[in-house]
Amino acid sequence: MNRRMRASLIVIVAIAAAAILNNASLKSKAATTGRTPIMNSADTNTVLLPNRSPLISFRILFMTGSAADPKGKEGLASLTAAMLAEGGSRSKTYSEITDAMYPMATSFSWQVDKEMTVFSGTTHADNLDSYYSLIREMLLDPGFREDDFARLKEEAINYLKNSLRGGNDEELGKEVLYTMIYPGTHPYGHQNVGAVGAIEKLTLKDVHDFYTANFTQTNLVIGLAGGYSESLPKTVQTDFAKLPKGKPGAARMSAPTQLPGTKIQIVQRETRSTAISLGFPINVTRADKDWPALAVVASYFGQHRSSNSYLYQRLREARGLNYGDYAYVEYFPRGMFQFQPDSNLGRRQQIFQIWIRPVEPPNGHFVLRAALYEYDRLLREGMSKEAFESTREFLSKYVNVLTATQDAQLGYALDSRYYRIADFPAYMREQLAKLTLEDVNRAIKMYLKSDAMRIAIVTKDAEGLRNAIIGNKPSPITYNAPKPKEITDEDKVIESYKIVVKPVDVVVVPVEKVFQ
Amino acid sequence: MKLLIIASLILCLPLLALAQKSRKAFAYDYTIDDLRNDLRLITIPTDYPNLVALYIVVQTGSRNEIEKGKSGYAHLFEHLMFRGSEKYSGQQRDEILKKAGADSNAYTTDDRTVYHEVFSKDDLDKILELEADRFQHLKYPPDAYKTETKAVLGEFNKNSADPEEKAYEVLRATAYQRHTYSHTTMGFIEDIEDMPNQYDYSWEFYRRYYRPEYTTIVVVGDVKHDDTLAMVKKYFADWKRGNYAPEIPSETEQKEPRENHVDWPSETLPLVYVAFRGPAYSDYKKDKAALDLLAPIAFGENSDLYQKLVLKEQKLDTLSYYFEDRADPELFLVSAKVKDVKDTDYVRQQILETYKRFATDAIPQTKLDSTRSRLRYEFALAMNSSEAIAGSLAGYVGLRRTPLTIDKLFALYDTITPQDIRETAAKYFVDNHRTIVTLSTKKEVAK
Question: Which of A480, B55, B198, B400 has CB atoms 3.0–4.6 Å from B405's, for a disulfide?
């Protein structure tokens, strides 16, 4: 028995015991759980969440992603995953697959991030055998047809050119921020979907090669949840043992070097409003002991899509400047479409990020100043005892909301395995209970202070905004209704709040050049 | 062997019941209680532990915005309801929700406004008290009102970056001339810009619609019925019934095909929206059910059209349909995102021919059966948490105030024949009831 296995078994025993103590009716399930580890297949990493639901969720995770894209082939990981999940298998065309899934109302989703590629789907137990045999074929015996390739390649290009550049200023701003922080030479230095010019040159052979090299047993983690039969985990392990063995994961990754000073990129685009994202890298992930402290800070300062946060209260609630204002310590794509983060976006490096939702262009300069003013205040003042207690209480309960579905539980369990922490809800509750105000305020000083702020802005009058920023002239704000003196006094400070940036570091980029 | 097993604490017994015994589409036991003021409570205990999902459904949406110049107020109210009430300021409210670990939000559609929270079960009493206070004693001064109208404008602005939002807005304004479905839920931009001047009117809107007879409270999760009812009575029994019933203007007969075009100021893929006037939601008349079954067959990802235009010829980036359950007759919309502007006419023709084809040819029985199966499993798969159950229910509650309508609807699906579908398609997909909207990059910008 190696060390890791022993650690895992301890987790099983501990949780099963807790389950029995908490609820007598769980005894039968705990017994089932006890029998499951019969699987003595060789080397397959597996995370299992058995329960009695008639729904069965699969998360087939590969520890590879866009960070593994070869130089000049940015977008290959993403296109390969698309070919598996949205292309045919060797024996079935993609149409035949979707036809077979149609009466089951199932689908097979994919997500590619820097270091993780996950395929996921949920089926009703009635259809388990048919569903599993379809996804098994898709992942293990892909068709890699030319017509699928041409379609999916074009889809990727259109995503970058049209959906991102032409239809979603907010996501565009956030993604531009990442490219500012991670230079092109860094494995994180390109958008997950790739770069237009590189995608155009990709070939089917590239996809083939990437698949063989990266979709390996070493990179694989099988995740199953729901009321599946006892034999299913073993079956899946045996089937996936067909994948090549593969080499151990990627080498060490160095943190991006940030030149000191503020740098601003303004993307010029024909649009009604101004979207702003700002941030810098932090040397903390969920694997680190200070992460729960930073999670508290981010929640207090800007809980995603919640009015319960400091920034939201100051910018939207008190001033009506926009639709919302949030802060993050982990990558959170597609935030405009969803309230909870997706799982399986595990990264070795993360950034601290502030997301200012679109504001009216005349207010752009003021709001940028306000965001920096509030950020500086957070650094200066930290969190109060009261804010700390209430945020801690919120997060301790909110983990239940984050893991309300079995698919979410499975996703979090896979991520906890990646970060080598205990099961997420239990881990968070335990860590939060131990946390003190001093821990949190120390973490703010230690990790959230940066002299290398990066700011991405999407707006129409990019030159005008650039001139305003480098001119550092006052940007007074007017409202449609009188404001309390506290706000107007603060506005006086904000309207002249100095943004220290060299003119050469404020760059205007036409939208067509982004992700090209 | 590297194995990690995590025993899930979740048991899904109600869903298990679905698999084992029931053909009922909505497989949960529920209780309906009507208070004397006509407020309705639907309680659904589940075995998902710890959490409660509270959905408060107000049968008021942009459909109720009947006065000229006053579009967007149902949605504005969705915002104002977070501004505080007699007993709790917005900030106090936020603090209470924060302590409950709550996920709290709201949304507005054409027909309903839904306020929803998910939180720990011990906080149900407090949160019901909080909700009762804002539904009965909302309070916002003129200054806060004006500030909130700016947040609504901010929301319009963020949406306006998306060409699909614009095409849909123009489609509605073209297809409807009298009915309030002519504007989207956001409202017309000129009305949104005028909102800061309409403080008094905003109260009029509240007095009309924020009334018990328009409202249904849905509680799903780790709860007991009797306790829940007692709490709801404690906080909501004194709420006064209203007496307002809006006269929603009925749409005039459309006597000619309509068309509109949008010039988009930046680079985008062209859009083609082809819509026909369809029926309203019904759980006993066959028309809506027949077209519900037809939609995925004719225009879904498994349809011949999708296979042809998206997969084989690869002319389209996306092809989708949109045909919601609505209180009044709704558009049956097919939308396509075209890769090359040269193919726009071809795509439009293909969509029109497909509409026609299903009005003349009956679909095979096997296809119909597999679609019925799909709708049933789709519904079952969506029920994966207490919140998901409450969320799925909210739409039906907004229409009929009871989960029973779901079982009736699925029973109705079982009666539909290929012949019904053909006849219904022939009845609705007629040229004079058609509206087409196209959108493309304006010439000066296009390269």
Answer: B400
pLDDT tens track for A392-446: 999 999 999 999 999 999 999 999 999 999 999 999 999 999 999 999 999 999 9
Dist. CA B369–CA B363, nearest whole Å:
10
Does ipTM come in above 0.85? no
Cβ under 8 Å to A: B residues 160-179:
160-164
CA distance B18 to B13: 9
Contact assignment for A409 to B8 by CB distance below 8 Å: yes
Contact A405 B385 (CB under 8 A): yes
- Chain A residue with CA closest to B149: the answer is A320
CATH 3.30.830.10 fits A39-240, yes or no: yes
Give the whole-angstrom CA distance, residue B385 versus residue A404. 6
B145 in A contact zone (CB under 8 Å): yes
Whether residues A397 and B120 touch (CB distance < 8 A) is answered with yes
- The domains found in chain B, sorted by start residue, are 24-236 (3.30.830.10), 258-441 (3.30.830.10)
A318 inside 8 A of chain B by CB: yes
Q: Give the fold, CATH level 3, of A263-381+447-513.
A: Cytochrome Bc1 Complex; Chain A, domain 1 (3.30.830)
Query: In whole angstroms, what is the distance from residue A194 CA to residue A77 CA?
Result: 9
Q: How far apart are CA A288 and CA A392, in angstroms?
A: 18
A120 backbone dihedrals φ, ψ, rounded to 5°: -140, 155
pLDDT tens for A105-138 read 999 999 999 999 999 999 999 999 999 999 999 9
As a whole number, mean pLDDT of residues B289-299 equals 98
Paired strand residues for B437: B260, B273
CB contact under 8 A, A323 and B118: no
Q: Is residue A304 less than 8 Å (CB to CB) from chain B?
A: no
